[in-house]
TrEMBL record:
Record keyword Cell membrane present: no
Keyword ATP-binding (UniProt): no
SUPFAM superfamilies with a match to the protein in the record: Creatinase/aminopeptidase (SSF55920), Winged helix' DNA-binding domain (SSF46785)
Pfam families (alphabetical): Peptidase_M24 (PF00557)
Family named by the database record: Belongs to the peptidase M24A family. Methionine aminopeptidase eukaryotic type 2 subfamily.
Region feature Disordered, mapped onto this chain: 1-97
A cellular component term, taken from the record's GO annotations: cytoplasm
Taxonomic placement: Eukaryota, Fungi, Fungi incertae sedis, Mucoromycota, Mucoromycotina
Organism: Mortierella isabellina (Filamentous fungus)
Protein residues bound to substrate: H197, H305
A GO molecular-function annotation: metal ion binding
Official protein name in the record: Methionine aminopeptidase 2
Length: 445
């Protein structure tokens, strides 16, 4: 998820520009069938299957060949359990000792390089090991779910099918269990000029097209330690420059991150990269600009936006500094449009206001809806589809009441100008006392 810096002028602008494209909510369960088909139990590496295959070779001759084959297979088996497609094996079953892999490590530079070997810092770090391990488990689920998403998502699929594919994977691999482990926030599936905070509501008939630019923003959590990471998926190679730009800019931002680093310097490093990119689309050349009112953010347990922002433009004027122990999401967005998003379209994303305090509610339905939200989501963001799963129905009035009373915050889709294209990339980073860890890094991005 992303933080949106809205000034008052913009808010006024938005109110005149938005004419809420409220789709009708005829609930058609397009996914029921695919969900069932998805469970194929392809445990390719499990032992009984090897036995089956050997059976085929029963014929007598070529026993030397047979031995060779068997040897090969045994070698493969030693690698241990593997993930299936679609993903069905909880990561706790893939890492028998329950120790999950570290992300990409990068030593602190310059005046901070003493940290690498400092005894006191190493001691502080050991105390945190369980917390890091929880976040790494969330990150491993993220990597495995997105690897499948990248392979399986194809033009022609509905947005609801895509969301289900990702969320079923997360729920299974993370062994969803109340507040102990689960989805960290709604699956962002924003298309084209929309940069963030779109996920389908029930009845959404949108279908992915070959020429779409899809931002896939997935959240996973273990004990509230949220892994927030996103990438952009396209099918038409004409967008390759856009993907290249967002990757280089985001990695430049990640490189800049460190203890005592001013967040404005991260923004400047990101902007610098975007300055050197443009893209030709259908005979016209567009500058690739950072989206100036979107930012990365610090993360705390069960709190996706913990207070500090990480700008993606120069001259942000934000002089806050990153500190030891902080967890943050570095995410950058770019656009062929004006490089500025406004709230647009039907809202799907919501979250309780983190430090909202007690608000007396008069509407009984609003009270009971709040009880449901407290029970299932707490302070984690959620979307209407997740609320539907709890059994809540006809909650529009009650939800509006909670938003109007400042108990719940609505996060509508954030979109640039129509006809433009936006891209996003994001990683979750731990500023460990001795080393920087890009927890969500994978071999894909
Ligand atoms: Co985020």
């Amino acid at each position: 998820m992303v933080e949106n810096k809205v000034d008052q002028v913009t808010e006024a602008l938005q109110k005149t520009q938005i004419n809420g494209n409220g789709n009708d909510k005829a609930v058609t369960d397009v996914t029921a069938q695919t969900e069932k088909e998805d469970v194929t139990n392809g445990n390719a590496d499990h032992e009984d299957e090897d036995g089956d295959e050997d059976g085929e070779e029963e014929g007598g001759e070529a026993s030397a060949d047979k031995k060779k084959k068997k040897k090969k297979k045994n070698k493969k088996k030693k690698k241990g359990n593997k993930q299936t497609e679609p993903p069905t094996v909880p990561v706790s079953k893939l890492f028998a000792n329950q120790i999950y892999p570290e992300g990409q490590l990068e030593e602190y530079r310059d005046e901070n390089n003493w940290r690498t070997t400092n005894e006191e810092k190493r001691y502080i770090e050991r105390q945190e090991h369980d917390n890091y391990n929880d976040l790494r488990r969330a990150a491993e689920v993220h990597r495995e779910v997105r690897a499948y998403a990248r392979k399986a998502i194809k033009p022609g699929m509905s947005m609801i099918e895509i969301a289900d594919l990702i969320e079923n994977g997360t729920r299974t691999l993370i062994e969803e269990n109340g507040f102990d482990s689960g989805i960290g926030f709604p699956t962002g599936l924003s298309l084209n000029h929309c940069a963030a905070h779109y996920t389908p509501n029930a009845g959404d008939k949108t279908v992915l097209a070959y020429d779409d630019v899809l931002k896939i923003d997935i959240g996973t959590h273990v004990k509230g330690r949220i892994c927030d990471s996103a990438f952009t998926l396209t099918f038409n190679p004409k967008y390759d420059r856009l993907l290249e730009a967002v990757k280089e800019a985001t990695n430049a931002g990640i490189k800049e991150v460190g203890i005592d680093v001013r967040v404005s310097d991260i923004g400047a490093a990101v902007h610098e990269v975007y300055d050197s990119y443009d893209i030709e689309l259908d005979g016209k050349t567009y500058d690739i600009k950072p989206i100036r009112n979107l930012t990365g953010h610090t993360i705390e347990p069960y709190r996706i936006h913990a207070g500090k922002s990480v700008p993606i433009i120069r001259d942000s004027g934000d002089d806050s500094k990153l500190e030891e122990g902080e967890q943050l999401a570095v995410e950058t967005f770019c656009s062929t449009g004006r490089g500025y998003v406004i709230e647009q379209g039907e809202c799907s994303h919501y979250a309780k206001v983190y430090d909202g305090g007690f608000v007396p509610l008069r509407l009984p339905k609003a009270k009971s809806l709040l009880a449901t939200i407290n029970k299932h989501f707490g302070t984690l963001p959620w979307c209407k589809r997740y609320l539907d799963r709890t059994g809540e129905e006809k909650y529009a009035m009650a939800l509006k009441n909670l938003v109007d009373n400042g108990v719940v915050q609505a996060y509508p889709p954030l979109c640039d100008t129509k006809g433009s294209f936006t891209a996003q990339m994001e990683h979750t980073i731990l500023l460990r006392p001795t080393v920087k860890e890009v927890v969500s890094r994978g071999d894909d991005y």
